[in-house]
Amino acid sequence: MAKKPRKQQQSGGTPATVALTAAGVPFTVHSYDHDPSHPSYGEEAAEAMGVSPERVFKTLVADVDGALTVAVVPVAGQLDLKGLAAAVGGKRAAIADPALAERTTGYVRGGISPLGQRRKLRTVLDDSAGLHETICVSAGRRGLEVELSPTDLAGLTSAVLAPIGRT
């Protein structure tokens, strides 16, 4: 059962939570103290929230044939770049330059959300998201996650669902 939306204060919201609130989508915010020395932002989020790494998804920005593309995959695995390229009809994909990803999305690395980005990019969500009632993605800053249904996430980002994650 989906949880009721959490009201956001204007001063405390991120572009991601503001977008969710504006869309009327049910979501829950989870915050935790970010440890800058942790080797993985996603694994840190899963551990801090006590959520299975298969339900916590990381947002990666890739360059597919010259076009920036957002890939949302479980933190328990890695992005399959060939699978991502195939999902959008491309030939070649590579992780985008981090500075370009930050400038384009408006978020910092480790806090890039698939929601509320400065410039809307085509998005691919790993099809394993459909195995869960809710998943967690970055809310737009390190130490802040939103939990929502994968259907709502796909709808708000106009995401294609495809097998782009690998273990």
Shape descriptor reads globular
Mean pLDDT: 91
Helix content: 10-25%
Distance between the termini: 28 Å
Give the beta-strand count: 10
- Kindly name the structural category: alpha+beta
Strand order of the largest sheet: 5-2-3-6-9
Order of helices and strands: HEHEEEHEHEEEHEE
Largest sheet: 5 strands, mixed
Tell me the radius of gyration: 15 Å
Enumerate the spans where pLDDT stays under 50 for 5 or more consecutive residues: 1-11
Q: Please work out how many helical segments DSSP would assign.
A: 5
Describe this structure in words.
The longest helix is centred in the first third of the chain and has 9 residues, at 15-23. The chain has helices spanning 15-23, 41-49, 81-87, 98-105, 150-157, and strands at 28-31, 57-64, 67-74, 78-79, 93-95, 122-126, 135-141, 144-148, 160-162, 165-166. The chain has a 5-stranded mixed β-sheet with strand order 5-2-3-6-9. It has 167 residues and is an alpha+beta fold. It is built from 5 helices and 10 strands, in the order αβαβββαβαβββαββ.
